Amino acid sequence: MSNTVNEFDYVIVGAGSAGCVLANRLTEDSAVTVCLIEAGPSDKSIFIKMPAALTFPIESDVFNWKFESEPEPELHDRVIGQARGRCLGGSSSINGMVYVRGSEKDYDHWRTLGVDGWDFADCLPFFRKMESFENGADPSRGADGPITVVRSKADHPLYQSFLDAGQQFGLDDAGDYNSGNQEGVHVTQATIRNGVRCSTSLAYLKPAIRRPNLTVMTNCLVKRVNLDGDVASGVTVQHNGEQKIIHAAREVVLCAGTIGSPHLLMLSGIGNRDELATHGVISRVHLPGVGADLQDHVVAPLRFRSPAGVSICKQLNTLGRLKLGVQWSLFKTGLGATPFFEVGSFFKSSDDVDYFNMQHEFLPFLADFQSGKVHIADGFQYFVSQMRPHSRGNITLRSADPRHKPVIRFNYLTDQRDVTQMVHGIRKTLQMVEQQAWSRYRGESVDTPGLNATDNELAAWLRQVANTEHHPTSTCRMGVDDMAVTDSQGCVHGVSRLRVVDGSILPRVPTANINAPIIMVAEKIAASMAAR
Prior knowledge:
Blueprint: E1 3-13, H1 19-26, E2 34-37, H2 46-49, H3 55-59, E3 67-68, E4 81-82, H4 104-112, H5 120-130, E5 131-133, E6 147-151, H6 157-169, E7 184-187, E8 189-190, E9 192-193, E10 196-197, H7 200-208, E11 214-217, E12 220-228, E13 231-239, E14 242-254, H8 257-267, E15 270-271, H9 273-277, E16 285-286, E17 298-304, H10 318-331, E18 343-347, E19 358-363, E20 380-386, E21 394-396, E22 407-409, H11 416-433, H12 455-465, E23 467-468, E24 498-500, H13 515-530
Helix pairs in contact: 1-7, 1-13, 5-13, 11-12
């Protein structure tokens, strides 16, 4: 194989939620050249663009890396699938489009971990910069950013029952949960523009793609970061059957995600030297924290039947789907323009937690998004998630071959505190379903325990059904301790001209769906890089 050499100022690996942001912001300076490398294809697919079709890219081998965990010891050794985007836009092209910033306390807590410059007051300008909120600008919200944020219609009776039941239980109406109070029930905000998924590819990459100083390479596998001593000089890639070396005059920036970025660091000899040696990888920089501290939101579905014809299920039969597709194709309206997650809530599992630590997402029909093909049935389901887990997992090499996916261990529910919080959150959810607002629509439960179940019975059921919210973070986390991988600007400790900017650098998983926080982090670091 020949080694074709190209040189750019910046080489960005991964065109996902963070990579597209950096590619746009850095090329605003016409004197700066950028190469953006993506392992997957373009995102030009109706199944990515149509919000209601979100299950198709998730089920796809083309647009989804389809990672899998090792058998999870506290989940009866079940293997848990992890969806990560593999196309332009990355996970923002296959996610549920739910837009949540997280609690102010999440970011203020990062400061206590030695990460300077990440208080919420430091982050707010970049949340405002990135968003175009349909309700307009105010001191908390932005109105002219690249990411379009809309408020869901939530006009189905099951959505209203969810909102009413939460308030009858005692939760507040949070209103704009991304401004001020996040705790309580809410109508969901989503990253949708004129009925189309607003991924970072649409929002950031499309406006920049024609700039002469931006080169985008798709279907391109990065094999390793090239190091000259402790200086990153570029990357080696496999592209169109040819091995190429792409030099970076200023920096290599990894935006390959919480799984991809630590994997690539380890393939390049950056990580725990003992772990690397077991796979014959020569240690270049000993950083034991690479791949460690993996965090994710664990979720349990509570499912209930409803009277026939009440749920959205009746509109998703064969004829209904045809109508949905035609209406969306012609007008970008109707059910095709919604991901269906139109209401939700944040609440405390108990009074002894510092602030709300549980999330509800909700669907007005029964469907299983975790096991291949989706089967729709009449009913409704709550998804109960714990937002700040104590359990920690890790990512390690499977082999030195970059084509082999890494070994992933989430270790869900290995910390008893997580089990306790989830059990309390499930019990509160069962109490919400018993509220008067559900009396007209609540049918029998589907494999869901009742309120009379003991804590031990709820914990046993939880271990049988628990799954992932697909929100992994923190495997290259920012910090100053011995297990930190990056500094407060994403620069890799012990290596010059190498940076990581994606969900892997978050010091702690936020009380949020993670797409919005990752875009904010990329905006903030991009501004710092451009100002140099």
